[in-house]
Amino acid sequence: MTNAIQLEGIEKRFGPVQANRGAGLQVAHGEIHALVGENGAGKSTLMRILAGLHAPDAGSMLVNGRDVTGWATSEAIAAGVGMVHQHFMLVPTLTVAENVVLGSEITKGLVLDRGAAERAVRELGKRTGLVVPPDRLVSELSVGEAQRVEILKTLYRGAKILILDEPTAVLSPPEVRELWAVLRSLRAEGGTVVLITHKLDEVIDVSDAITVMRQGATVTRMASAGATPQSIARAMVGRDVALALDAEYAGSTISGASATAPLLDVRNLTVSGTRRGNIVDNVSFSIAPGEILGIAGVEGNGQTELIEALSGLREARGLISLAGRDLIGDTVRERGDAGLSHIPEDRHERGLVLDYSIAENLILGQQHKFTSGPTIDGARVLAHARDLIARYDIRPPDPARAARALSGGNQQKIVVAREMARDFKVLLASQPTRGVDVGAIEFIHARLREARDQGKAVLLVSADLAEVLALADRVAVMYGGRFVAVLPRAEASPDVLGPYMTGAEHAA
Amino acid sequence: MSALNFLSQTLRIAVPYLLAAAGGVLSERAGLIGLTLEGYMLGGAFCAAAGSYAAGAAGMGAVAPWLGVLAAVLGGAALSMLYAASAIRFKADQIVVGIAVNLLAVGLTRFFLRLFFDSSSNSPRVPGFDVKGSGTGFVSLAHNPLVWIGVIMTPLVAWLLYRTPFGLRIRAVGEHPAAAASVGVPVVKVRYMAVALSGMIAGLGGAYLSLDQHQFTDGMTAGRGFIALAAIIFGRWNPLLAGLACLLFASAETLQIQLQGTQMIPSQFVEMIPYVLTIIALAGLVGRASAPAALGKTTTE
To answer: How far is it, in rounded angstroms, from Cα A306 to Cα A298?
Structure first.
C-alpha cells in the first residue's frame, strides 16, 4: 500500500539559510505521525512545502502515490492536504463561518450563502466535536476555540491529511486532551495527521510513529511504542539532555530563607476588570531571596494580568514591595532600575522589537544605561551584544541580524539574556520556555535555577505544570484571579494541584 | 432658503464625496491607503471633460456626456493601476507613491489641458447631463444619472463588501493577507481588483464635477478626495457609515455657503466643521476607529 505522504531528498534554502537539506518523511494512511526537532531544524519549512506554501529547491513529493512536487496551496487543498499553522491564520474581524469558508465560499447566485456556511460549521462541529459558535467574531474567541476554527477550516476543505504545527503550545491541559480526542476520531475516520510538537511526552501519548529532524535533515524514524522522551530528545539534539519532566527536583535548601526579609512582598494586589469583577482579586504573597515561586493554573485566570500589574504595565491597587521599596505608581523603567526584571509571556508582543537587531533588542528598556552624552554608545552596545550572544549561545551570532530572522528559541534567548544580564533582585518569568525547543528549555531552566542560587527571587508563571514542578520551591495555583492554593513543592503533584486548577477545590 | 433647497444643495455637494468614499472603502479594506482618491478624481474630471468635448464636437449629442463618463472611469482606472503596480508589485511605500500619483494627476491634467485646449486654466464648455430649464433643485439633480449612481454606489459597495465572496476576500486580504493566502485566496489579484474598482468609482466622482460645471478647471477637485478619505475614517471603514459621513460633511459645507453674507457666525468656523469632525473621529471620540490591520503594509504574500 502506498504511503499517504512520501517526501524524499527535500532541499530548501532561504537566502543564506539552508532550512532543509535532504529531508524526508514517510507517513502511512490513517496514522498520527509526530515530527519533532529543535527550533530551526526545518520542520515547519518541510510542512509548508508539503502544504504548497513553498516550492522545494530539490527533492520529490508524493501524496497518495501521486507526484505533487512543488504544488501550489490551492492544489494541496484540492488534494485534501490542510495545514494548521503555529501562528493562527485567521482573520480576526471575520466571523467563524466566514473564516471557515474563505477562499471556498458557498454562493447563492452572486451572494455569499451565510446560512449554508454556518450550517456547514455546525454540522462539522457535531461530527468531530469541534464545537464553535459559527456567528461569533474570531477576535472574540479563546485560543482553544480559535484553534478549533483552524482545524474546521481544513476539514471543511475536505482535508484527509491534516498538518498541525505546534498545536498545543498555546493550549491548556484540558484543551490539549480535547485536541487529542479530535485527532483520534479523525484517524478513526481514515484521516492522516502530521503533528509538529516540542512536548515529547505528548508525542509518545498520541502518535503512532515519530520522525526526528535535526539541522534540516531527517535523523530517524521510529515507532512511538517503545520510544521514551529521553530517546527522542537524544535523537533531536544529538546528545543526552536533562528533561524538565524527569529532572530530579533540585531545590536549594531554603531553610534560612524564611528568616530573611522577602525580596518581593505583594499585599492585597487587585486589578479591576470589566463586568465580571476583578481580574486579579486580592492576591498576597511574598518571595524570599533564593526562592522560586511557581504559579500554576489554566491560562486566563489572571496570571497575565498579575505579571502586568507587577511589572507596571497595568494599573493595580495594593502593595508591591521590592526589597522594602513600594513600587505601586512607579513606571516600568523605575521598577526595572529598582531591580525588577521581566521575561514577558509573549516575546513578539512585548519581549522584542522584531525589526530591531539582536544588539538593539539586548538593550531594550536599558538604553538609558548605554549612552554617551545624548547618543547611544554603539561600541558599548556591540560589546554588550557580543558578550551576551556568546554567553547565551544565541544563533546566528550576528549582533546586526534582525530579531525577526531568528528561530523562536533564539528569540527567547535574547529576551532571557537581556533580562538576566541586568542588575536585578526579582525576576518575573512568564511562560519563559513557551514554543522553544528542548535544548533551549534546558538552558533557560538552568539560568532560572542559577538566579535562584544567587539569592534572587523568581516568580515563575507557566501553563506547563511540569515546568512549574521542575523549578519551583513553592507552588501557587491561580484560579479566577485568586491564589486558591499555595503549597511547598514537596506537597505539590499534578494529582494534588489538578482539582485546584479546574476550580473544583478551593482553599485559603 | 427653504429646507428643500438645503437638502438639494447638500446632495449636489455630496455626490462626488459619496463616489470617492465608496471607491476608497474598497481600496482601504483591501489594505491600500486611499490617499490617491484625490488624484483619481482629478484625472476622472479631466477625462470626462475631454471625452464629452470630443464626442460633442463629433456630433454625438446626448451620448457625449456618457462617453465622458466612460473616459473618466478609464482615467481613474489607469491612475489606480499605476498606484497598485507601485504599491503591490514593486512594494513601494503607499504614502509616498500615493502623493506621487496625486502630483502626477495634477501635472498630467495641466499638461493635457494645454495640449488639447491650449489653456492653463480651464477647458471650453462641454456637454453635460442637465436639462435646460430644470433649475438647480431636485428636478435638475434627478436628470443627472451620476447623482443616481452616486446615491446607489454606497449601498452597492456595502453589498459587495458584506454579501459577496469577492467582498469577503477583500476584507480578509486587508486584515490578514497571510491568512487569506493560506486558504488559496489570490491576495495580489484581489488587491489589484479592489484598487481598480476604487479608481473607477472615484473617477466617476470626478466626472460628476466637470460635467456638472460643463468644464474642467485646473485643480478643480480642491481636496475633495481627501475629504472623502476623512469620511471613510469617520465612518470607520464601513461604507454605509462613510456615506453618512459624506452627507454630514456636505451639509456642513452647504450650511457654510448659506451662512455666507449673513453675519451670524464667521464662515471660517463653519468651514472648519468637516475637518474638526475628522479630528474628533481620529482621536477616537466616536468609538474606536480600527483601520484594516494590513492597511498600508507591503506584503510578500
So the answer is: 14
CA nearest A287: which of A305, A303, A310?
A310
The chain-wide mean pLDDT, for chain A, equals: 87
Contacts of B163 in chain A (CB under 8 A): 111-112
**CA separation for the pair A171, A182 (Å, rounded):** 14
Q: What is the chain B residue with the closest CA to A88?
A: B179
Burial A129-155 (b: 16+ CB within 10 A, else e): ebebebeeebeebeebbbbbbbbbbbb
Query: Which residues in chain B are contacts of A165 at CB distance < 8 A?
Result: none
Question: Closest-CA residue in chain A for B184?
Answer: A74
Q: Does A309 touch chain B (CB under 8 A)?
A: no
Give which of B176, B288, B298 to mutate to test A binding, by max A Cβ within 10 Å: B176
Cis peptide bond upstream of A396, omega within 30 = yes
| A73, A98, A105: residue with CB nearest B182 | A73
B140: containing domain: 3-282
User: ipTM, 2 decimals?
Assistant: 0.87
Pick from A263-267, A319-323, A431-435, B228-232: least confident? A431-435
pLDDT at B61: 80
User: Is B169 in Cβ contact with A103 (below 8 Å)?
Assistant: yes
CA distances from A44 to A34, A205, A408 (A): 12, 21, 12
User: How does pLDDT run across B161-189, given as a tens digit for each residue?
Assistant: 999 999 999 999 999 999 998 888 999 99
pLDDT in tens, A191-203: 999 999 877 777 8
- In chain A, what residues touch B291 (CB-CB under 8 Å)? none
d(CA A186, CA A209): 16
Q: What is the DSSP string of B27-78?
A: HHHTT--GGGHHHHHHHHHHHHHHHHHHHHHTT-GGGHHHHHHHHHHHHHHH
Q: Look at the domain A264-354+426-501 and name its fold.
A: Rossmann fold (3.40.50)
Residue with cell 532543509: A20
Least confident among A213-217, A450-454, B45-49, B286-290: B286-290
Q: What is the pLDDT of residue A251?
A: 47
Give domain status of residue B191, yes or no.
yes
Could you tell me the three cell numbers for A297?
493554573
User: Testing the interface with B: which of A14, A90, A94, A102 to mutate, by most B Cβ within 10 A?
Assistant: A102
Q: Is residue B298 part of a domain?
A: no
Residues in chain B: 301
Is A91 in contact with B184 (Cβ distance < 8 A)? no
Q: How many domains does chain B have?
A: 1
Residue A247 has pLDDT above 70, yes or no: no
Do A91 and B182 lie within an 8 Å CB cutoff? no
Domain boundaries, chain A: 5-237, 264-354+426-501
Answer whether residue A125 shows pLDDT above 70: yes
CB within 8 Å of chain B, chain A residues 78-107:
83, 85, 88-94, 98-99, 101-105, 107
CA-to-CA distance for A470 and A480, rounded, in angstroms?
A: 24
Indicate yes or no: CB of B167 within 8 angstroms of CB of A112.
Answer: yes
Confidence of residue A48 (pLDDT cuts 50, 70, 90): very high
Q: Three-class SS of residue A268? A: strand
Provide φ and ψ at A504, rounded to 5°. Answer: -70, -25
Phi-psi region of A453 (alpha: psi -120 to 50; beta: other; left: phi over 0): alpha
Give chain A positions within 8 Å (CB) of B168.
94, 98, 101-102, 105, 112
Instruction: Chain B: give the shortest CA distance to residue A78, in Å.
Output: 10
Superfamily per CATH, domain A5-237:
P-loop containing nucleotide triphosphate hydrolases (3.40.50.300)
- pLDDT above 70: residue A507: no
Does the residue B213 lie in any domain?
Answer: yes
Task: At A456, list the grid cell.
Answer: 534572587
Instruction: Please tell me whether the overall predicted TM-score, pTM, comes out greater than 0.90 for this model.
Output: no
